Amino acid sequence: MTQIPSKQQIMDWVAEHPDANSKRDIAKAFGIKGAARIELKRLLKELEAEGQLERRRRHYRDAEALPPVTVLELLAPDGSGDLFARPLEWSGEGPVPRILYAPRETDPALGRGDRFLGRLVEVHGEDHQYQARLIRRITATPNRITGIFRKETEGGRILPIDKGQDREWRVRADATLGAQNGELVQAEQAGPKGRLGLPLARIVERLGDPSAPRAVSLIAIHQHGIPDEFPAAVITEAEAAKPAGMKGREDLRDLPLVTIDPSDARDRDDAVAAFIEEDGGATIWVAIADVAHYVRPGSALDREAWNRGNSTYFPDRVVPMLPEALSADLCSLHEGVDRAVIAVRMRLDAQGNKVSHNFHRGMMNSRASLAYAQAQAAADGNPDAATAPLIDTVIRPLWHAYGLLAEARRRRQPLDLDLPERRIELTPDGRVKSVNFRERLDAHRLIEEFMVLANVAAAEELDQRRRPLLYRVHEEPSLDKIDALREVAQASGFTLAKGQVLQTSHLNRLLAQAEGTDFDELINISTLRSMTQAYYHPENFGHFGLALRSYAHFTSPIRRYSDLIVHRALISGHGWGKDGLSVEDSERLTETATHISETERRSMAAERDTVDRYLAAYLADRVGTEMAGRISGIQRFGAFVKLDETGADGLLPIRDLGHEYFHFDPDAQMLIGADTGLEIGIGQRVTVRLSEAIPMTGGLTLELIELEGRPMPRGPGKGKRGRAPRRMSVKSRLSEIKRAAKRRRKH
């Protein structure tokens, strides 16, 4: 009689023979023949049902083990510079195994996110379970999807959370990664189409409960691929750092330096002081945390800071560029504590012009950690216990210097946008408590002007010393964008002159025309949209928005890698030590500039998406409520409205605008009714009803109630717009509108 093996014997054999694990192979190995195969089949099905074995076509394998050959994705280098990979498919109950990638000298170079077919060898006694060798590179990079998993009998579906993406994705039963119904997941495209015509996806990461407190920022972090966990080697390196000593530093501890930050500031990397001079001018000091002392080129900290590029700020958390041991401690300029800094001393004449500057590597001790409102109250004559002793030595000199800089700014005419910043206040459990606009104080402007001047001094210093650096570049807007802005200005009753070399002063005159009118915010937003996006570059192309010839970022090395590069360049240029700009830093400045420009845009998109989701969550309880707003954008599919109360943007879908066809005119930025000639354009006041708010996507859908005070019908069959005197073609109607606009401009 044939001896049937036990379940454990079958599992042990499968683990030892990963290349020969079909039912036939197992039967042959244990000498099972004839009717005994039925019993073997039953055992294999039980093991499969229990999750002990996984069936792949006609083969079985240990569900908690990886096959010897599998498709892998390369991850970013860890703190020690080692390369790890993750399997694209994993169905085990335990954590995904760590796989060390061990390239041979002849292998092609692979980077983060590259896919390859790898041969795995199991290892023991290490911090990883497998070592991988390259078989061949796989060049195709599939689309990524973040969404909600809906479990079904066979696999499930993913409902994307991205605004504007309503296509569902189907997940096969063997590609769910064990995701539960309603769980937030990250997936990638696994094929063109499956059953029901839906594209296929495989889940690559489970992100947990999407309704959990503070899940909103977590969604953005994963959706945009922002690294949010420091490798162990980076944490170890940061926590091993010791406070810098006085060797090689100037003693700046007698300077009356103070920090002025938001009341909820998590780090303090800049301090300021000022002195009033006899000629009416001023001397300004700006001291910046000496991050370069702690983050050395080529270190684990440096590699991770480069990888992140910058810190990312959300209403409920910060994803920092550096670990807290540095960002919140050794590099934070706390009150009453000696801290290493790189400082710049700048001399202003009585007209606010910078006449000289010089840089110092020193040690400071902050007199006080002030909040903006606290410093402003002291300047306005209402000091508290902390600021009263600082009035003569700190507050009055600072505001004197600010007055000089404000006058110099008025002459220079940088772009003077006035865009209120939203402040989302959360409850302790992560729910939205209120949405307000941040108050703009002279204290805010003072710090901004001091930082701009210090950044200019850093760029000029390195230019003079002919040292490589990263400039902050902002090129002038394109003619097409300025023409579009001119159309918006004319539609609002303002003018933007043509036929001259564009300067920021021309745009400021437009902004001044709109100030105090109903079109104030619209013109500010439209002007901002006409601008090009600032970026980093090792060549100097000027800064249009600030009206400056040379500009670099120097003042925030805790949260921006660009500033760390500038600090290192200053250290090398002055011969202050061996922690300056390395040869490797210099050789890859172009690569670094491109990379950190991309990480900055990534963070901005994640922060914007998070704010949209919080606003949608805040407004979700007010569906059906009427709200006032203004048309802020026109697209072929509808109109965008910026709501007055919260500044949130919602969509008026074109399908819901009425019972006639609307033509989209991109030049005039209008939607025009084919029957009535009704014009819907940028700047118009509207009353809308909130018809849908989706916190998961941040989407707001609106219904038009009134346009410029005129009640609107509620859609097809719900009312009449009035009869047009005659029906004309859309083309004729557009021609008539443009002729009327020309007549208005002449008069």
TrEMBL record:
Domain S1 motif span(s) in chain numbering: 624-705
Keyword Coiled coil attached: no
One of the protein's GO biological processes: mRNA catabolic process
InterPro entries: CSD2, NA-bd_OB-fold, RNase_II/R, RNase_II/R_CS, RNase_II/RNase_R, RNase_R, RNR_Ribonuclease, S1_domain
Basic residues bias spans: 717-730
Function: 3'-5' exoribonuclease that releases 5'-nucleoside monophosphates and is involved in maturation of structured RNAs.
Family, similarity comment: Belongs to the RNR ribonuclease family. RNase R subfamily.
Official protein name in the record: Ribonuclease R
Organism per entry: Paracoccus siganidrum
Gene responsible for this protein: rnr
